[in-house]
Amino acid sequence: MSQINMVQSLNRSLDRLMAADERVIIMGEDVGRDGGVFRVTDNLLNKYGTERVIDTPLNELAIIGMASGMAMYGLKPIAEIQFQDYIFPAFDQIVNNIAKVRYRTGGRFEVPLIIRTPYGGGVRGGLYHSQSGEAYFAHTAGLIVVTPSNPYDASGLLVSAYKSKDPVIFLEPKRLYRAAKSEVPDEQFEVEIGKAAKLKEGDDVSIITYGSMVPVVMSAVEKNQVNADVIDLRTILPMDITAVLQTAKKTGRVVIVHEAPRTLGVGAEISALIAERAIDSLFAPIVRVTGYDIPFPYSHEEFYIPDEKRIMNAINKVLTY
Amino acid sequence: MGDEETLREMAIVGNLSNEQAITAYKTAVLARTLDTKIINAQRQGIIGFHVPAQGQEMIQIATAMLADKEDLIFTYYRDLALYLQRGVPLSLIFDQMLGNSNDFQKGRQMPDHFSFKEFNFSTVQSPVGAHLPLTVGAAYSMRYTKKNGIVITTFGDGATSTSDFHAALTMASVYNLNVLFICENNGWAISLPASKQTKAEIYKKGAAYGIPGKRVDGNDLIGSLSGLQEAFDYVRSGKGPYLVEAVTYRIGPHSTSDDPKKYRVDEITDGSEKDPIKRLENLLLKMGVVDSNFVMTTKAQAKESVDKEMEERMNIPPTDPLSIFDDVYEKPTWIQEEERRDLNVSD
Fold first, then answer.
1. What is residue A171's three-state secondary structure?
2. H-helix or E-strand spanning residue A199
3. ω into A285 cis (within 30 of 0)
4. Helices vs. strands in chain A: H and E counts, helices first
5. Chain B hits for A90, Cβ within 8 Å
6. Which residue of A265, B13, B28, B103 is most buried, as measured by CB atoms within 10 A?
7. Which of B114, B134, B328 to mutate to test the interface with A (most CBs of A within 10 A)?
8. Burial class (CB within 10 angstroms; exposed 0-12, middle 13-18, buried 19+) of A293
9. Residues 6+ apart with CB under 8 A from B259
10. d(Cα A170, Cα A80) in Å, to the nearest integer?
11. CA of A61: which chain B residue's CA is closest?
12. Nearest CA to CA, how far is A75 from chain B (Å)?
């Protein structure tokens, strides 16, 4: 066990995967000599060489397209897109190619590719270093979308993503990269894809959240001694429907918290699933606490990202309904 | 290129035997016959759609002739003759065109979007040029895992305008990968003539990436072979990627969904003066390699085998509707399982 942050956890996990399997190739902008702009791939170039840690030209479409060809023909690429905001030139490759290769070939080809990318605000990154685009990917069958909220899950989910035969969009909440340390095993372990974590047992209200919002939610409920059931989804697609319905039925009051904008966000899907399957158990309307439906602002970003106050307002609203 | 010039070119190739020329001719006739058959089947509602490849047979056949078994080929959706020359049987082509239960792809793709993995082809997708960056990854993988062979990819003139083309050439040159890019410039991207597609000469587009290029006569077997040979040699020797522009001619429409009379009215001909099959036929006749009886028999045999094969393949039942939920993931998630239960096919 080591007390490490998320960057260190990811770095060690990548290192172990590369040591164990020479098919694993890391590629992306500045991932080699620079070790990645957030240092997630630090020192891997020195250890594994330029054939396995590839500093690529500045073209996200090329990175993802090339990586998918590598994955289809025997390698296990882990591609990094420097900021999730920059993934869109590769969106056609992700949606039309990668997500559909298995399907369109009748299962004869697959793309076991991991696309790692930091997302979310809180680092004074403005419009183009702050977006939370998980819903774009979660709308596409054929993709797996995960996001860890702590160093332990980061490492474990990465191993599960590596073992997956399907393409995984691995969203890293950049604000949490160095925010906290936790105990992480020194050897390889897995966090199962499709399984949420129950972070806190409670009876009065359910809070369903993931990624960058998890520490904010936990801090809010602990400080205010809310008797809350807290779910960290960890996997956005396919979502852990059992955990979502179980908590909704248990408390009958649901608050959903995510940093991404509200309209057609992941919270909308969670609300619909609960409304379709557990509406009889509800004592109050489902309330979403989300980023606003505006481009991510450079100034006043602290007002954009849901904070403890907004989360508590929502909790109080459903508790007093 | 006139016939005399063609004969001079033949000396350059040197290694084209009469048997090979006859085989190529037979494949071309079969491809043309198959193409016509599919167009008719589309009109009768038997096959849903088709992207005719008439006029482009020779560059495709030449490509397949020079490719080795271990070479990996990423085709586009207009490469019928290439599959036939590489040995794909008519039966498998019809299975895909019909989307029956024998189709490798389980009826998931529109006609002409093949994936003949057994013949070392990759998978065809509709977005133009989107396969190009994949070729680079595949070539990287082949080099990394020390596999023999090169990667060959075909695409139309329209694809050279896409971001994917730029992405692929960028990566192929930076990593010096063994990818042979073959543009089948048939003059048209649906309704847009090549002159409006780009101001550049396509074979020169590689220069900006440090990739050599060459223009070949894609309407002539011998011109195609001699032109391609240099490109194959270059890529096989590990020097890196190479860009070939094969000038050819799209005799028909873009697909069964458009009418070229609308946009090609001044230009369109029956294509006969550029018809690559006619040219090879005339050459073989002139050189006495075949006689007119052989030509007639070849055409009749092609028609017979195409007719017979389609009739047979039409008897194969369609796929199970519930199979539409398979192969989204390695194992269906609860979402596909639930939706599969929701689909009541008996109603």
1. strand
2. strand A197-200
3. no
4. 12, 14
5. none
6. B28
7. B134
8. exposed
9. B253
10. 9
11. B167
12. 6
Task: Kindly state the helix (H) or strand (E) to which residue A64 belongs, with its residue range.
Answer: helix A60-72
Q: Is the distance from CB of B242 to CB of B139 less than 8 angstroms?
A: no
3-state DSSP assignment of residue A147 = coil
Fold of B3-316: Rossmann fold (3.40.50)
- Exposure string of A220-253, with b = 16+ CB inside 10 Å and e = fewer, is bbeeeebebbbbbbbbbbbbbbebbbbbbeebbb
Interface of A with B in 154-183 (CB under 8 A): 164-166
At A165, the amino acid letter reads K
- Read off the pTM: 0.95
CB contact under 8 A, A104 and B115: yes
Averaged pLDDT score across all residues of chain B: 92
At A96-131, the pLDDT tens digits run: 999 999 999 999 999 999 999 999 999 999 999 999
What distance in Å separates residue B345's CA from the closest CA in chain A?
A: 21
* Cα(A206)–Cα(A253) distance, integer angstroms: 6
Q: Any idea where the domains of chain A sit in the sequence?
A: 2-184, 197-319
- Please say if A258 is a catalytic residue: no
Question: How far off is chain B from A317, nearest CA to CA, in Å?
Answer: 32
Contact state of A238 with B135 under an 8 Å Cβ cutoff: no
Q: Which of A62, A72, A238 is facing B335, going by the closest CB pair?
A: A238
Domain ranges of chain B: 3-316, 320-347
CA distance A255 to A193: 23
How far apart are the C-alpha atoms of B39 and A278, rounded to whole Å? 53
Residue B119 contacts A where some CB pair is shorter than 8 Å: no
Six token digits for residue B251: 């005799």
Report the distance separating Cα B42 and Cα B48, nearest Å.
Answer: 6
Assign B264 a pLDDT band (cuts: 50, 70, 90): confident
Token readout for B2 is 């006139």
Domain A2-184 has CATH 3.30.70.20: no
Chain B: closest CA distance from residue A106 (Å) = 4
Length of chain A: 321
Alpha helices in A164-235, H assignment, sequence order: 214-223
Chain B residue with minimum CA distance to A76: B141
Answer whether CATH 3.40.50.920 is correct for domain A197-319.
Answer: yes
pLDDT digit string (tens) for A44-59? Answer: 999 999 999 999 999 9
Q: Tell me, yes or no, if A62 comes closer than 8 A to chain B by beta carbon.
A: yes
Q: Fill in the DSSP letter of residue B186.
A: -
Q: Do domains A2-184 and A197-319 have the same CATH topology?
A: yes
pLDDT at A17: 98
The pair of structure tokens assigned to B198 is 């780009």
Among A51, A166, A241, the residue with its CB nearest the CB of B334 is: A241
The beta-carbon neighbor of A96 closest among B109, B125, B163 is B125
Identify the band that residue B272 occupies on the pLDDT scale cut at 50, 70 and 90: low
Helix (H) or strand (E) holding A146: strand A144-146
The two tokens of residue B147 are 């596999």
Cβ contacts of A293 within 8 Å, gap of 6 or more: A261, A262, A263
CB contacts of A66 in chain B (<8 Å) are: 133-134, 136-137, 140, 167, 171
